[in-house]
Amino acid sequence: MGKIVVDVMLKPEILDPQGKAVAAALPRLGFSFATDVRQGKRFEITVDGDVTAAQIAEVEKAAEVLLANPVIETFTVRAE
Amino acid sequence: MRIGVVTFPGTLDDRDAARAVKYAGAEAVSLWHGDADLKGVDAVILPGGFSYGDYLRCGAISRFAPVMTEIIAQANKGMPVLGICNGFQVLCEAHLLPGALTRNHELHFLCRDQTLKIENTTSAWTSNFTQGQEIVIPLKNGEGSFQCDDETLKSLEDNNRIIARYLGENPNGSRNLIAGITNERGNVVGLMPHPEHAIDSLTGPSTDGLPFFISVLTAMVGK
Questions:
Q1: Mutation for testing the B interface, residue in A15, A42, A43 having most B CBs under 10 Å
Q2: Which one of B55, B58, B62, B103 makes the best mutation probe of the A interface by having the most chain A beta carbons within 10 Å?
Q3: What pLDDT does B222 receive?
Q4: Which of A27, A47, B52, B155 is most buried by its number of CB atoms within 10 A?
């Protein structure tokens, strides 16, 4: 079984209040390393057999239409 | 006059929207998300709620419901469509309106009476207001922050496509205090606050929401 991973992130210019909340929580727990946090989504899509270039292309189409909203988000697709 | 009110799984405000339609003097027609049939209605309301549990993104899955195929086709031909709250999110996901609604900037779900200023009285859903009129209707959402790129924002501003703005402090981080917008043609309107909850002083903070529903009747008579 192959796996295709789609990572979806808000565009840099779009406010990410969840990421900001996480960034604010980290130092309260003693983690002082973060200057910024952005929160995204990860989809793991399982397919039969090894991942093919055609499947990657199909998933890219699906990401454009459904998995991500190109108005506010960017995405990357890769086989894993 | 027959106005369709769509029910998706997870819709909450379809009954109040239908009630508002009746108060305005029209017939409310229930439309089911799974039927690609608008039952010959003259206009459609996409009410508030959490359609499909807000899974993936608010409105992202509803946008592909069978009823939406027909609504998108008819909206592009000029049929009046009003999306309230979750309905606004569905209209953005369906690309009938530009931009997107994201998480409130303070992350809290808000539920309160909100003052708005009406900015556009030429759309199918706002002609019954006066320019600059201040109204108070409920605002209740977790993802009501209107976002778009600078170019889209300029186009909305330059073409008088912002129908209402929040007055006072920005409740959710929306760009330029945008509470509602319309498309180029003025038949499709998205509004984050809830006019259908403000049609009777017994059950709402005001009756300021009623003109939205009366406006569309005027728009249809004028055709």
A1: A15
A2: B103
A3: 67
A4: B52
Scanning chain B, the segments in alpha helix (DSSP H) are 14-24, 66-76, 86-93, 150-158, 210-221
Q: Which two tokens stand for residue B53?
A: 């549990």
The C-alpha atoms of residue B200 and residue B175 are separated, in whole angstroms, by 31
Q: What domains does chain A contain, in order, with CATH numbers?
A: 2-79 (3.30.1280.10)
| pLDDT score, position B219 | 84
Mean pLDDT, contiguous 10-residue spans, chain B (223 residues): 97 98 98 96 97 93 96 97 98 97 92 97 97 97 95 97 97 97 98 98 96 94 70
Q: Is the dihedral of CA B209, B114, A69, B155 positive or negative?
A: positive
Q: Which long-range contacts (CB under 8 A, 24 or more apart) does A56-61 make?
A: A56/A4, A59/A4, A59/A6
Contact A66 B64 (CB under 8 A): yes
Q: Which of B85, B93, B119, B148 is catalytic?
A: B85
In sequence order, the 6+-apart residues with CB closer than 8 A to the CB of B24 are B210, B213, B214, B216, B217
* Closest chain B C-alpha to A72 CA, distance in angstroms: 7
Active site residue B106: no
Domain ranges for chain B, please list them. Answer: 2-221
Cβ-defined contact of B60 to A66 (cutoff 8 Å): yes
pLDDT at B207: 97
ipTM value for the complex: 0.85
Q: Which helix (H) or strand (E) holds A57?
A: helix A53-62
In the predicted model, residues of chain A with pLDDT beneath 50 are: none
A42 touches chain B (CB under 8 A): no
Quote the pLDDT of residue B221.
Answer: 81
pLDDT for the residue numbered B223: 61
